[in-house]
Amino acid sequence: MLTELGVGRLGVRTDPLASPTGFPFKVASLPQTLSDAEMYAARPRLCDLSYLRIPFEREPGTVGYRCPAEPVHTYVRKGGDLADTIGRKCVCNGLAAAVGLGQTRRNGYSEPPIVTLGADLDGVAKMLSDFPAGWTAAQAVDHLLGICEGASTDALKHFDVHVAARLKPEALA
Questions:
Q1: Confidence band (pLDDT; 50, 70, 90) for 17?
Q2: Which of 48, 67, 78, 166 shows its CA 20 to 30 Å from the CA of 134?
Q3: pTM assigned to the model
């Protein structure tokens, strides 16, 4: 991904259907991820992490849960609308896989990642030019704090107290 970014070829598109919640995610177009139509089509539909399930009333007084990324027949059986399942990706499993925590199934199938980003890649491109071999979390925080050095004291009041103190101690007064 960083190589693609470094040479200006990283594609990021807004996928209005990716999330089962309907939130439009900015998805990086990378091979071997759920942004690849073939990879998406090959993934068995399931929802087993269930972080984004939606509650619904099953019977008066009982609650059920469904996810538009679960198997279509299961979602529809639970009262969901078939149209809500089209193009939905399992963001829970995909994001876990993107950080190295993807599940491997008994049959050997490994969950593919989904990589989400913002549309503004200038900061990451700057970090890449400053640290071509990669950077630490501390370097990233220092970079972000450097962006804020010119911020007004009033603006800094919205930051965590420790961040504001590091930037301008007078912001705490």
A1: confident
A2: 166
A3: 0.73
CB environment 11-50: b (16+ within 10 A), e (fewer): ebeebeebbbeeeebbbbbbeebbbeeebbeebebbbebe
DSSP letter for each residue of the chain:
-HHHHHTT--EEEEETTSSTT---EEEEE-TTSTTSHHHHHHSPP--SS-TT-EEEESSTT-EEEE-TTS-HHHHHHTT--GGGGTT---HHHHHHHHTT---B-TTS-BPPP--B--S--HHHHHHHHH-TT---HHHHHHHHHHHTTT--HHHHTTS-HHHHHHH-GGGG-
Spatial distance between the Cα atoms of 82 and 73, rounded to a whole number of angstroms? 9
172 pLDDT band, cuts 50/70/90, is very low
- Structure-model confidence comparison of residues 119 and 60, the more confident one: 60
pLDDT in tens, 40-56: 999 999 888 989 999 99
